[in-house]
Amino acid sequence: MFEKVLLFRDESIMKIILCVNEIMTNEISGGVMNREEIRKMGLSFGADVVGFAAVEDYKSKRAPDPKVIYPGIRSMVVMGFRELDGGLASDVGRISMHSRIGQMDLTRSCTFRTAKALEDRFKIRATPIMPSYPLNMAAPYMGLVADISLRHAAVAAGLGNFGRHSLVISPRFGTRILFTAILTDMELASDPPVTEVLCDECGLCVASCPAHALDEEGKTEDLKCLRNSQPFGIGGAIGFIRKFTGAPPEQQKAMIMDPQFLSLYQASFIGFQYECFRCMAVCPACIDA
Fold first, then answer.
1. Burial group, residue 250, by CB count within 10 angstroms (0-12, 13-18, 19+)
2. Best CA proximity match to 175, nearest among 98, 88, 102
């Protein structure tokens, strides 16, 4: 009986030692085991690529400090979702938006489900950062700067690097990719950066931009881009409201049946309705990868 007790005690001690060793190994290696489990989670929910960035490796000159907007943040899980090639094959923006709407639905579902799975599995805090809205509409940001720059997060997570068009080029999907992120208080090391130069400076994006928003290298002129790519966005809505409120009653009746108003109404429940995808569509980088 005494020998059995000793044997049971020795086995229990051994299990504890093995458990501690596993935890220490996991922590020393920057959470490699956890990262691969999380990567599989994200891929299983619908992401095409998943990367990791320690918060110290995330650098954005314009976006606010993530430690200020999310106290306790230690890392980001960044996920990429490829654009459908067919969605970019048409010059009609509405056709491309059909694909983008489906892609946005997938990104929201996948990112939230992954964040929830992280909290359930690892008992940590996680919050999803979706593409586009909501945005800080107050000065100085005015809806032009996101709380988290998903492009810079993707670069920090080893999912690509910047091209001449200021978009992130993925080694697998080129420019045809959309990113989301999950902020966590989990200690996760960054994936290795993409060091290969993926942009060959062909200039097709610059030449194809109808708004000339890419003329200055290293910069996208936001307002030029938005006026052209989102004619039914907030700028278009403000312009219409000003005209409407200053018009006589008979003209107002005609204005509410005008295609511009009807398009603004449609965009009000679609969200950001893009009419231009040229910089993504013409970029040849890695499209055959």
1. exposed
2. 88
Cα-based distances in Å from 269 to 99, 111, 186, 233, 265: 16, 21, 35, 11, 7
Neighbouring C-beta atoms of residue 71, cutoff 10 Å = 8
Which pair of tokens denotes residue 283? Answer: 């970029």
Residue 189 has a CB neighbour count (10 Å cut-off) of: 16
1-57 pLDDT, tens digit each: 545 444 445 565 555 555 544 444 444 345 677 999 999 999 999 999 999 999 999
Rounded to whole angstroms, the Cα distance separating 221 from 245 reads 30
Task: Report the C-alpha gap between 286 and 172 in whole angstroms.
Answer: 6
End-to-end CA distance of the chain: 66
Respond yes or no on whether the N-terminal peptide bond of residue 259 is cis (omega within 30° of 0).
Answer: no
- DSSP H/E element including 54: strand 49-54
**Global pTM value:** 0.85
d(CA 127, CA 71): 12
49, 147 contact by CB (below 8 A): no
Give start and end residues of each alpha helix (H) in 137-218.
150-156, 204-208
Domains with residue ranges and CATH for the chain: 31-199 (3.40.109), 204-279 (no CATH)
Angle at 97 between CA 227 and CA 43, to 5 degrees: 120
